[in-house]
Write a structure and sequence with these properties.
The protein is an alpha+beta fold. It has 22 helices and seven strands. This is FRG domain-containing protein.
Length: 441
């Protein structure tokens, strides 16, 4: 017999009370009588495992209600503290969740989502972790917000050092591998993939890749964890169209359609630079005459074609991808998938290519992605019932099964990390970061 909604809610409240106690809450209780009342809570005599409401005193109910109410709110955020979810109830504030507890449920998930190509996925080895970027974790743990350190200036210096360090070693690597060293996001993506702190969050078009990262480094399931959420890893997913409005393609398209004066300003500067370099061509070709060049510079259609071409170092894509412009955008995402005119140069090493990498941008120095996006939505529409994404919470007892399945899906260490000289690149990007951080010590 299925429990009533009232019974299920009571079970959830007592579970959160118990988890709170196991996580150190018992030590904070100074009321001996209340402690005795809590120890008298029992399950129903029918063996169903549900809480027997007759064994709860009014004071136990009040404490359970208060703790449950605290989980109805998102985790408190602080610039010197990495916040986590205390329960799945609390995680419901930002995500549409589904728990995966059996091999059959996991296999159904793999069958349904492996073929999808229009979804973005992210795997994390702890379900309780909020969606902080690596830069945010570094920023918070090193208390950079309180020193204070200017976040934008730090990122701009990081870009400068990445391009100049060791005679431009990293910039040459990016260009050699088909990236664009003049594009800040292209540079950040390389730093990100070799473990340097950046404001980017890794996502992927591949569900098996997300499963790989959810399993990578995950701890084993515990028989009696302090909190239920401790025994789960997570895979987040969102249909790509859900990111589209905040994506670079949309920004470029909107600029092309609605900000022609801005485009023409940059375009005309490029035409003037071309006039300076035309040299002898102006004397024998009417195409390069002053009149024709001036007409070209004032041709709206030509400016729009130029913006769409977005050639490396000179187009609208690189303009938007500068850190100083991105800092004004709370969140965005970057992808080179598709055949349209916006190319960033993200497929700049074998790791990104095999991992089908996509990157989400979070301009905040300390607030996780789900909170930033939620606050944006609520600011525009206070009545909105907004959830950041879907989330599969996979029980850690399934990790042995998952790790056996991953190679069958083609997800091996050699496939995910095909780059041979991993250690050298790790050392290079960390040297770049340390050099940047030293300038703000």
């Amino acid at each position: 017999m299925e429990p009533t909604d009232e019974q299920s809610l009571l079970d959830e409240k007592i579970k959160i009370l118990w988890e709170w106690g196991q996580s150190g809450g018992w030590a904070t209780l100074r009321d001996a009588q209340l402690v005795r009342e809590i120890t008298q809570v029992r399950e129903m005599p029918d063996g169903s495992g549900h809480v027997n409401p007759q064994t709860l005193t009014s004071r136990v109910r009040a404490l359970a209600n208060a703790l449950y109410g605290s989980q109805q709110l998102p985790p408190l955020l602080h610039p010197e503290h990495l916040s986590m979810y205390g329960s799945f109830v609390q995680k419901n504030n930002y995500f549409d969740q589904q728990r995966i507890d059996t091999p059959a449920e996991l296999e159904a998930l793999i069958s349904e989502f492996t073929p999808k190509t229009d979804h973005l996925f992210r795997g994390i080895n702890e379900a309780k972790f909020m969606l902080y970027s690596s830069m945010q974790r570094n920023w918070i743990l090193n208390k950079r917000e309180t020193k204070p350190t200017d976040h934008q200036l730090f990122l701009e210096r990081l870009m400068d050092n990445a391009r100049l360090y060791c005679g431009g070693l990293l910039a040459k690597y990016i260009e050699t591998n088909g990236g664009d060293a003049g594009n800040d996001v292209s540079v950040l993506s390389i730093l990100q993939h070799y473990s340097c702190p950046t404001p980017l969050l890794d996502w992927t078009y591949s569900f098996p890749v997300a499963l790989y990262f959810a399993a990578m480094g995950a701890t084993d399931a515990q028989p009696t964890p302090a909190r239920e959420i401790d025994n789960y890893v997570s895979v987040y997913y969102i249909e790509e169209q859900g990111f589209a409005q905040a994506g670079l393609r949309e920004m470029v398209a909107m600029s092309i359609e609605g900000n022609l004066p801005l485009i023409k300003e940059v375009f005309q500067a490029n035409v003037e630079a071309l006039k300076e370099r035309r040299g002898i061509m102006a004397s024998f070709s009417p195409t390069f005459s002053d009149e024709n060049m001036n007409n070209f510079a004032n041709d709206d259609a030509a400016a729009l074609r130029w913006a769409r071409a977005s050639f490396p170092g000179g187009g609208l894509t690189n303009y938007f991808c500068q850190v100083k412009h991105l800092k004004r955008i709370p969140n965005s995402y970057f992808s080179d998938q598709g055949d349209d005119f916006v190319r960033i140069g993200l497929e700049n090493n074998p790791n990104v290519i095999n991992q089908k990498g996509v990157f989400a941008w979070n301009s905040s120095s300390t607030e996780p992605m789900e909170h930033v996006v939620h606050e944006q939505v609520i600011q525009d529409n206070p009545e909105a019932n907004h959830l950041y994404s879907h989330c599969f919470n996979i029980h850690k007892s399934l990790l042995p099964h998952l790790r056996e399945r991953l190679p069958q899906l083609g997800m091996t260490d050699a496939f995910i990390f095909p780059e041979q000289d991993q250690q050298h690149l790790h050392e290079v990007v960390w040297a770049i970061f340390d050099k940047t951080a030293a300038g703000f010590a």
